[in-house]
């Protein structure tokens, strides 16, 4: 397993940073949310403010794990309470990821939250995904999933012969070996990785998709609140529409006390796997 803080660390200053990707976050290459998290850390190192507000990004290429990536961060607009930044990630001169990110300072404004977290059991009352797979004699295909203590709310015993169901997936997740982080940018990376990743598992509830993959081509995340002391995050993802090789995904993350932390929308590019 990896360590989120170490594996997303960036090095440099003044808008010029480098990072080394870890194979512990491999799934169809470097996980898209993990790539985005490295870019978010670069924005955090450059930002004049401590709180990430939004990320809007395009995935432009697939990085490898052997060569460091370069990150260039520039200010698009800076005001008294907010800063807009562009983060461009390249590897050996090739574009990998490009994002626009807002950060904000102390802002007083209206307050409300009319969302309702789904009624689900407490995570510590549920068996872990690792325990369920071990009981079934199954092994995890991708080492990426070793970075979480995942507590499924529902479980399909015979996944290969599953009946189609609604394209919605919702489970509890706790990062391991470290689960909480004081740095607000690193704390936001927890939500960012989960929100990018879980659209495809939602699609898999409806479709038998063994002959397809669907990497993200874009991602938009709004960070609403933070619970840096809470290790457990409940993530619900859905894929309400798929057509013409594109799959629309939506996601929300709540803390254990039912507080909405972040929401996201993404588009996946669905294509056949190589023989």
Number of domains: 1
Task: Estimate the helix proportion, in percent.
Answer: 10-25%
Report the CATH topology name.
Porin
Please report the first level of CATH classification, the CATH class: Mainly Beta
Query: Please, how many helices?
Result: 5
Mean pLDDT, to the nearest integer, reads 94
The radius of gyration computed from the alpha-carbon positions, rounded to a whole number of angstroms, is 18 Å
Helix and strand run: HEEHEEEEHEEHHEEEEEE
Report the count of strand segments: 14
Q: Main β-sheet: number of strands, strand sense, barrel status?
A: 12 strands, antiparallel
Description:
This protein has about 280 residues and is an alpha+beta fold. It has one domain: Acyl-CoA thioesterase, double hotdog domain (Porin, Beta Barrel), CATH 2.40.160.210. About 15% of the residues lie in helices and about 35% in strands. It has 5 helices and 14 strands. It has a 12-stranded antiparallel beta sheet, covered by helices on one side. It has a two-stranded antiparallel ribbon with strand order 9-14. A hairpin with a 2-residue loop joins strand 11 (about 235-245) and strand 12. Helix 2 (about 30-45) runs antiparallel to helix 4 (about 185-195). The longest helix is centred in the first third of the chain and has 15 residues, at about 30-45. It is globular, with a radius of gyration of 18 Å. The model has no long low-confidence stretch (mean pLDDT about 95).
